[in-house]
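Below: protein 1.
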Amino acid sequence: MSTKPIYKQYLALFAVGVLSAFAVGGSISVQAQTESQPTSAPKFTEFKPGQTKISGNGNPFKPESLRQTEKPTGGTRGIPDGIDDRVPMLSRDYPWSTIGRVEGTTTDAKQYHCTGTLIADDIVLTNAHCVIDPETHQLSQKILFKPNVVNGAVSNRRDVAQAVQVIYGTNFTGNDYSNQVNDWAVMKIDKPLGRKYGYLGWKSLSPQTLINNKEKLFFVGYSGDFPNPTKKGYEYLTAGPGYTAGFQAGCSIVKEEDNVLFHDCDTAGGSSGGPLIGVIDGQPYIVALNNAEIKNRRTNQDIINLAVKISFLDELAGNR
């Protein structure tokens, strides 16, 4: 008798921002975080191979006017290993400049936020559950992208962009497996922010290559539990949790089951759509897309986190 993979035992994608539990002792929750905003719906389109041209074609881009730095800082909770290794992402330099908050409004006027990354002049990568409610299958009515939010602020208020078109991998009417492996979306925005903030490339590496490179990945996400401004040293981050991204170095893809990646980066609601980044030949590339966490129902501690393979971007751009 075969044993079901862990994600199949626990998998059930919940409504945006909701953290739920199973009777079987574990739960999986998508990692959007609820919040607030206005309305004007983008055009939504289902995925077709070769559907869109992505200007960078998978290569990163840094504007000449931007500095580049490896330091995201500008200098005992529900986490898989029980230790929170995140630090605030305070840098306005590349590549940290490419990552921002996705903020949206659902059809029933609920607000939420996720994480998104510029991958071209006017294209942002995030999760499907950050643009579509997994329970109701309704499309979000308005979606904003705010690049490089630090302590609640972008470097220029005029750089807040709105999604005008969304291509998604799933609308959550399929089975659990299909929903998990296709939980991605790309948004065309109404401003070419990548020219100013730069954008990340992507690399479709084999699962074994990712697993073999232990503690080599970076993760960035606007988790709704981070930073805690009441914690010593974080008092100056007055905008509160979810308004400064958390950064973690040295996390890993720990295994792969049936096209589902498992990772140990520190995440929470709001970090959905956050990039797992690898440095390849000295350049930063997205190698996987964070999308969910499996929790212990009794302790609320993370068991493991899930990620989507990035190979769909090659198909979307017609690169294979």
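Below: protein 2.
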Amino acid sequence: MNSLNLLRENNPLVICYTNDVVKNFTANGLLSIGASPAMSEAPEEAVDMLTYANALLINIGTLTKAREADILKIAKTANQIGTPVVFDPVAVGASQYRKDFCATFLKEIDVTVIKGNASEILALMDTDTKMKGTDSDQDLDAITIAKNAYNLFNTAIAITGEVDVVVQDNQIYKLSNGSPLLAKVTGAGCLLGAVIASFLNKDNKVTIEMLIEAISIYNIASEQAEQNSKNNGPGSFMVELLNALYHIKYDHYLKMSNRQEV
């Protein structure tokens, strides 16, 4: 069975330690595609939650000093239980504080997938990289950055942008689906991180096909949402994206996926 249909059959629990700006949108997006979200941030319940969860998303969008210890405790519990961890280092290049925390996180935590834009992934490797908030430099070579990050961190890498790049098992793919309106909705990238997490599970090693399917389905849904919103703007697009995630079928992925191995 393909990953999307398996997801909808099992309604996987996804624990999201994500930023304050996107929690509602992330939860609704996961519900729309067929997953079961839980915005759990208490280390005291991490064992109970993560025992039944398919994956944990860690998103540092609204990182604070008070949250650092909780994030590390929850992620370490996930490692102990064997729950996959998706790490989204939001705006890591915007401040030295974020760079330092991400360096600590990646040193102490076994991460299954690192997801971010090209500037964010570069900043994880190069402490001199600077960002303006969450914006990515469109002139960066995402393929080279993805290769280097994969070799450095020894884990799956998903770089998002106008063209997405995925690396796993020494295979690299460019994915060219998506809508420019995704960049006009706060939390669209954060939701993608959660969608990736919803496709993972404890029983199977993450494969490049699994990542390609998750990212492509999300981006194909965004194309359908753009069409259905009839040029009414980001507000209509945001609602239609939830609708498109709810209605998308695996056949849409097979027919519309735009992928290229590099």
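The chain has one domain: 3-261.
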